[in-house]
Design a protein that fits this description.
Blueprint (H helix, E strand, L loop, with lengths): L3 E5 L3 E6 L10 H9 L5 E2 L8 E7 L2 H13 L3 E9 L5 E11 L4 E5 L6 E14 L2 E8 L6 H7 L20 E9 L6 E5 L15
Parallel strand pairs: 4-10
Antiparallel strand pairs: 1-2, 2-4, 3-4, 5-9, 5-10, 6-7, 6-8, 8-9, 10-11
């Protein structure tokens, strides 16, 4: 498999993760080592296997530590595009308590804090509405398993194609669209974007 690499330097490699490929060991890191010849490829953030889009991988331990620290301290910004069923409000913020059941690999919105429950937060804005679908841009404030998928589904706005959370059959309409962070070596503020693929359902919208 030949990956689409958007940028590469001594510390980092930016690429598009294809739908269906693991973002962690057993998937993208091995493919990137083979394609770039890098001895070390470290995964510092994840995408669900069924979701595609922009990712950054560290090529050194220094870069991995810097990016991990930025993620922990909130300096690593991630934005996504999603298509959900129904009419989403113009903008908003979602805050929930999420519990992830590892046995079923499914997350749930719960009402009270207990063991295994974590706070989840995101912001979103609706870019366009068409055919009883809403195109939304989502900024993650926390990174929880299936977070965008379950938070929208819990508000009767399941992502199109997300069978696990009530969105019907097909490919999940969720795409890693934008990353902001500081380069671990130069200190430069970096911003990378990647449009979703030119296929359904993205082609229904003019702003995707």
């Amino acid at each position: 498999m030949n990956l689409e690499i958007l940028h590469e330097d001594a510390q980092l490699v930016f690429c598009i993760k294809p739908v269906g490929v693991l973002s962690e060991e057993g998937g993208m890191p091995e493919l990137l080592r083979e394609q770039t010849g890098a001895k070390e490829i470290c995964c510092v953030h994840r995408l669900d296997r069924a979701v595609g889009g922009l990712m950054v991988y560290a090529k050194t331990k220094l870069a991995a530590a810097s990016l991990s620290r930025q993620i922990t301290e909130g300096g690593f910004e991630k934005r996504y595009l999603a298509v959900c069923r129904g009419t989403a409000p113009a903008q908003g913020e979602m805050r929930d308590l999420l519990y992830h059941d590892a046995r079923s690999n499914k997350s749930y919105v719960v009402k009270r804090m207990r063991r295994g429950v974590r706070e989840a937060a995101l912001r979103y804005e609706t870019l366009e509405q068409r055919d009883e679908l809403s195109l939304v841009r989502v900024e993650l404030l926390t990174g929880r398993t299936h977070q965008i998928r379950v938070q929208f589904a819990s508000r009767q706005l399941p992502l199109l194609g997300d069978r696990r959370y009530g969105g019907g059959e097909g490919e999940i309409a969720l795409w890693s669209h934008e990353l902001h962070f500081v380069h671990p070596q130069s200190g430069e503020k970096l911003r990378f974007t990647a449009p979703p693929p030119a296929r359904e359902p993205w082609t229904r919208f003019t702003k995707s």
